[in-house]
Sequence to fold (250 residues):
Amino acid sequence: MTPLLQLERVERRFGGLKAVDEVNLSMVPGEIVGLIGPNGAGKTTLINTITGVHPATGGRIVFEGAEITQLKPHVIASRGIARTFQIVQPFPQMSVLENVAAGALFAGRAPSLTAAREAAIRHLEFTGLGALADSSASTLTLAQRKRLELAKSLAMRPRLLMLDEVNAGLNTAEIDDALAIIRRISASGVTIMIVEHLMKVVLSICNRIVVLHHGQLIAEGEPQAVVRNPAVIEAYLGKRYAGAMAGGTT
Ligand SMILES: Nc1ncnc2c1ncn2[C@@H]1O[C@H](COP(=O)(O)OP(=O)(O)OP(=O)(O)O)[C@@H](O)[C@H]1O
Ligand SMILES: [Mg+2]
Fold:
């Protein structure tokens, strides 16, 4: 299958630090890829590099057959790549609806304010925030702000969506709700990359896992195989986790 996204030896340096170090990766349409690795591994930087926020200092990024490596973030967004932010930052003085409508206008190619508001209502209903459309974004709980991030990114009508720790800080019930939404997004035809520390989430939702460590891709493949990979256990999961997996208790 033709890849949707292809990274060829992608590098992002910050001074002397290679936060992303010659990463080769491709994603095919429809898959959900889990991006895991220890704190500081380069996961968020990889998303920032793909989306043009911190452009690659080496290598090539190709999306739907066209090189996007050095394009500006708003151009990349309008090509069909959206992301959520690890630290959620809604415009607090705006309503929930206006926050999402801004996304629809910014990159969702909404032709008018009315169209942007209509799209926003659809995305808020899709993410279960319909009843809060007129509330001020500053009144939302963390779980609701994370959903607002999802609705904002969907308003950009992406074909590739990158989710950066959308479940961090949520309780079990909130995570279950978020996973149901992510599954619905996937079923609607959007290809997804999800950065996630909770292995239960990764294993329940991802078709494939990619592991970063010190900026380098150290493993990738089918989830159950990757979590048994000794290099991944050593770098990230730890021996206790591996023992629990082997015993079938997680
Ligand atoms: N804007 C920046 N300027 C300088 N260094 C940066 C910048 N952004 C990230 N880094 C560094 O790049 C490395 C990778 O950071 P990154 O935030 O991508 O890791 P991460 O895998 O997302 O970690 P976490 O799981 O904690 O979110 C770290 O050493 C970090 O300090
Ligand atoms: Mg991060």
In short: The beta strands are 5-14, 17-27, 32-36, 58-63, 66-67, 81-83, 160-164, 191-195, 208-213, 216-221. The chain is about 40% helix and 25% strand.
